[in-house]
Amino acid sequence: MSEVKIISTNTLSDKKYPLKEINFQKPGHGGRPVEHLHEIYYRPDAVAVLLVDYEESKLLLTTQFRVASYMNGNPSGDLIEACAGLIDKGETPEEAAKREALEETGFEVHDMKKVGAVYPSAGGVTEYLHLFIGRYDSKGEHAEGGGLESEGEYIELLEMPFEEAREKVLHGGFNDAKTLILLQHFFLQHKD
Predict the structure, then answer these.
(1) Which positions are annotated as binding Mg(2+) 2 (predicted)?
(2) Model pTM?
């Protein structure tokens, strides 16, 4: 591990989450110190959970508008995603995953298993994303879901058969990183 020296930190924006300019020094090739200037967006850690109905061989995904994808060429701005959200203060990642699943889909998640954790955009965002897969009962009782209007969430639910999701994974049909990671993990474990 090489030594990093923070030279300065400058807050560029402090609205919802801080955006800071970090000037740091780190040894480069041959050990010579090299100075770098990066903009870092300080976002809270988050969770994503893929809901699976093993008996019915289907997945429960969400569809919602993402303005960043729209601004970068996604014509509708809509993304198909696994349930996801930020970890609230005092919450464990597991608690947050269960809460987000209920808020977004109306379904309780059972037999949830953590499959990993990743930095979704390590070059400029601090967020650390905890990934889970859990069971839901598509024929069971459930709340309304759809996200929280107070958070500007307008979420549509999308149940997808395993085979359709597998084909979409194989042919580039998902463009949300967390969802693709979870689906790849799921299909590596369930090849039938």
Answers:
(1) 100, 104
(2) 0.90
